[in-house]
Structure formats: structure tokens, C-alpha cells
Design a protein that fits this description.
The chain is mainly β and about 400 residues long. It contains 2 helices and 34 strands. The longest helix is centred in the N-terminal third of the chain and has 17 residues.
């Protein structure tokens, strides 16, 4: 019996140790919920210790990806995109140009890299999808999604973090016939194509839902929310979802058989309930007030948290009913992640805020200002092995939060 207990303990310890070895867009599973233990519940008055920073990234808004204790990030210099690789101490291990990048407005790479089984995947702002060798950064294959699948770029450039499902890499060109595609992750060959609703892409990175009878890819396109069968590309369902700029930049949030989709520019939030094993949906609730634009939301327990857009509040909403538990002014809008009952809020004015995730009130315990870097404070922070990584334009910062 004692031996069994020891084996179980070691197994659980190993799971915890390696639970976050691979960080992609918004964590290991795109929820924005991290799985760190022992992080500070209160930061020092001046903010957590800055362990190191790197000031040569160029322009860009992508977030950090991490795999096996190496940090991967993109930036743009002189209209060319680059991949950067760092060790945990901030030493630059590799840097390589990959091609032209978005240089028309809010310049630089948008979508976060996805690292998978020795390869790195990237969708650029101009619609090129790349597969790189993780060690050498050599290009293994690439495709122009817009030309290949008869699609058009969108006003502020394609913004999508590639989604890997088994041997498939998923992307959303936004073509009339080839709205979403699944490519072989090793060769780039087309596996399936879905017409969706024929909308343009909408700056959204898709979510993969695995606990239904049908495996579902959920994303937002210009005018719809779509659910696609991951095995064959068949459209299972869609739900109209419009705003005046066709911008839906937040990855859907899933939990308890329900999908939260939130947009700014006057749209608000829609909660859909999956039915018939994921093959169909019904609207559970709608809130025009809860209008997060690009900062995403997180589900902690029975509540969701995030900021508004034109409604310039931070919100807590009951996940099941849509009832707003609190809304508070005083902070600029921003993005949000969570870990161990705490909210990490990074505002577009450069304030980093630590708060308790509670439906009682916006319980801020610590804050400090991000003073390094350039341009907009839009990249989402990342937590990994006791360190918080914050990208602000040209600069990557690593803060000790354990």
C-alpha cells in the first residue's frame, strides 16, 4: 500500500512538473489559465523583481511561446519578420529572418508561434503560414494562405495562432470556399477544407473542444461563430455575430458545456450551450454590456472575468446566467490571464495588476507600471516556472513572481 501511494505521488508530481512544458497562445490549452504553483499572492510595492530584459525585438504584438525551457518570439525590423529564441536567463540563442511581415498599421507580427514535436508554426500578418525546424529555424514548408485558398487579407492583418490537432495544423484563410483549412503539419498538404459561412477571417485564434461526442474547432469569423468537425471539416453549426468592423479577436472560452464569445465595437458577449453531443447549439444568454475587444476573458470557477471596450469597466459575470456580479472603473481596458485563483491584468496604459478572482469585488492586491518597450501594450503576458513574461513592442521582460 505504501509503495502504491509513493508511485501515485511521484506520478502526480511528474504531471505537475511537466504540465506547462509547452506554452502556446494563452497557455497550454488556450484558456488563459496557467498551472503554476507557489506564485506570490502579493507583489512588492515597486513590483516583482525584473530578472532580465531584451530590447531588440523590433515591432510586433505576438506573445511568448515556450517549449522545453526555451522561449520563442517574433518581431519585425525593416518590414522583415524574425524569430527569436532565448534561454531562461534571457540569452539570445538564435535569430532568423523568415520573410515579409505586416507593415501597414500597428506594425509587426500578430499571431503567437505554436511549437509542436520539433517544429514551429507561424501565420504572418500577410497570410503566409510557415513550418520551421525548431532547432535550426530553417523553413521546412510554407504556403500563402490568401493566394492558395482565394481569400483576402483583413484591414489590420491576419492574426491567428496555428492550432495543432494530431497531424493537422488548422488555419482560417477566410475564403468563400476555403474558409478554414486543415493542413498536414509535416508537409503542408491539404487534408480538408471547410467553407464555414464564407466570411473573412476576424483576427481570432481557434479553440479545440474535445469532451463532446464530436471533436469541435470553434472560432469567430467576420459575421459568425462557427463550429467545425475537427475530423473532416464539416460545419456543425453557426451563429450570427456581427459588429461594425468585423473584428472578433478573442479566442472563445469553453467550460461546463458552454462557449463564451465576446467582442467589442458595440457587439457584446454571447454564451452558447452545446447540445446533441456538440452537433448543435442554443443561445444561453447575451450581454451587450460585456464587450471585451482584444483582451480576452478567463473562466475561474463559476465566473468569467475581463475588461470592456466602449463600456470601460472591468467585469465579473456569472458563467451560467450572464448576471454581472461587479463592474469597476479605474483601470484602462486590457488583457487578462489567471493562475491559482489570481487574475493578472495587463492594461493598454501599461499597468500590470494582480487581483483575487472573486465575485464579491474587483479585489486588487498589487500593481506596477511597465516602463520599458514601445508602442501598444497588447501582447498577452505568460507565466512559466515562477516567471512572468511581458512583451511590450521592442522589449521582452522577465519578472520573478515566485
Amino acid at each position: 500500500m505504501k509503495k502504491g501511494i509513493i508511485v501515485t505521488f511521484l506520478f502526480l508530481f511528474a504531471l505537475n512538473l511537466f504540465a506547462q512544458d509547452n506554452i502556446q497562445w494563452r497557455g497550454t490549452d488556450r484558456t488563459g489559465i496557467y498551472k503554476e504553483s507557489g506564485l506570490l499572492k502579493v507583489w512588492p510595492d515597486a513590483g516583482p523583481t525584473l530578472l532580465w530584459h531584451y530590447d531588440g525585438l523590433g515591432e510586433g504584438h505576438s506573445s511568448v511561446a515556450i517549449d522545453s525551457d526555451k522561449i520563442y518570439l517574433t518581431g519585425m525590423t525593416d518590414k522583415k519578420g524574425y524569430i527569436y529564441v532565448f534561454d531562461m536567463n534571457g540569452k539570445l540563442l538564435n535569430k532568423k529572418e523568415y520573410g515579409d511581415e505586416w507593415a501597414s498599421s500597428y506594425n509587426g507580427p500578430r499571431g503567437t508561434l505554436t511549437v509542436n514535436e520539433g517544429k514551429i508554426y507561424l501565420v504572418s500578418g500577410i497570410g503566409e503560414i510557415y513550418c520551421f525546424d525548431q532547432n535550426t529555424l530553417n523553413t521546412l514548408w510554407k504556403k500563402n494562405l490568401l493566394k492558395e485558398y482565394n481569400a483576402s487579407n483583413i484591414e489590420w492583418g491576419i492574426n491567428e495562432a496555428p492550432l495543432i490537432i494530431d497531424e493537422k495544423v488548422i488555419a482560417t484563410p477566410g475564403g468563400k470556399q476555403h474558409n478554414m483549412v486543415a493542413l498536414n503539419k509535416n508537409t503542408g498538404a491539404l487534408i480538408w477544407s471547410s467553407p464555414g459561412e464564407g466570411d473573412l477571417s476576424a483576427y481570432c485564434s481557434p479553440l479545440y473542444i474535445t469532451d463532446q461526442q464530436v471533436p469541435i474547432i470553434v472560432t469567430m469569423t467576420a459575421d459568425h461563430i462557427i463550429g467545425i468537425d475537427a475530423s473532416n471539416g464539416k460545419k456543425l453549426w453557426s451563429h450570427e455575430n456581427k459588429n461594425r468592423y468585423s473584428v472578433h479577436a478573442n479566442t472563445p472560452v469553453y467550460g461546463d458545456n458552454m462557449i463564451l464569445l465576446t467582442s467589442g465595437y458595440g457587439r457584446g458577449s454571447t454564451m452558447l450551450r452545446l447540445t446533441n453531443g456538440g452537433r448543435s447549439i442554443e443561445e444561453a444568454w447575451f450581454s451587450k454590456e460585456l464587450d471585451n475587444r482584444i483582451g480576452a476573458m478567463v473562466k475561474v470557477g463559476d465566473y468569467a472575468y475581463g475588461s470592456g471596450d466602449s463600456n470601460r469597466y472591468w467585469f465579473c459575470v456569472d458563467w451560467k446566467t450572464g448576471d454581472i456580479k461587479w463592474k469597476e472603473k479605474g483601470l484602462a481596458m486590457g488583457n487578462i490571464i489567471a493562475n491559482d485563483g489570481m487574475l493578472y491584468c495587463y492594461t493598454d496604459r501599461g499597468n500590470m495588476v494582480l487581483a483575487k478572482a472573486t465575485p464579491e469585488k474587483f479585489d486588487i492586491v498589487s500593481r506596477f507600471s511597465i516602463t520599458l518597450g514601445t508602442e501598444q501594450h497588447w501582447a498577452h503576458p505568460v507565466l512559466y516556472k515562477g516567471t512572468m513574461y511581458v512583451r511590450h513592442g521592442n522589449t521582452l521582460m522577465a519578472y520573478k513572481v515566485k
